[in-house]
Design goal:
With 121 residues, this protein is α+β, with helices and mostly antiparallel strands. Helix content is 30%, strand content 23%.
């Protein structure tokens, strides 16, 4: 089994797609400059998908990176994905952001602008 390295949020810059801004270091999610309330697990899920934008991310990888080796069912993952879709104003029937890869995982399908973090020093 391949393990996914845990990525510390401070190493991320900011992500932007459509009118939505994600700033991992500040744990911020905004639409048009207004904060979007999001549960911590849904936020971690979004970050994992954004880091692999355009790629299929398997359910195992998502469960691992968000819940960290705990025994969590895919039902819990599906619930958090629908919660995240609601927050982003996305739908599973006509996805703009998160597409389901049937029985395998999910893919972030919107184009993402990634700004690297400012270097200290």
């Amino acid at each position: 089994m391949k393990t996914v390295p845990r990525i510390e949020p401070e190493n991320d810059g900011t992500y932007q797609f459509d009118n939505i801004l994600v700033e991992p270091a500040a744990h911020r999610l905004e639409r048009d400059g207004r904060p979007l309330p999001v549960e911590p697990k849904a936020y971690m899920l979004l970050l994992t998908l954004l880091r692999h934008a355009g790629e299929m991310v398997s359910k195992d990888v998502l469960l691992d990176s968000v819940w960290g080796h705990r025994h969590v069912t895919t039902g819990v993952l599906n619930r958090v994905v629908s919660q995240l879709r609601r927050t982003l104003g996305d739908s599973s029937a006509q996805p703009r952001y998160i597409a389901t890869v049937h029985s395998l995982g999910y893919r972030f399908i919107c184009e993402v602008q990634c700004t690297p973090p400012a270097m200290e020093g």
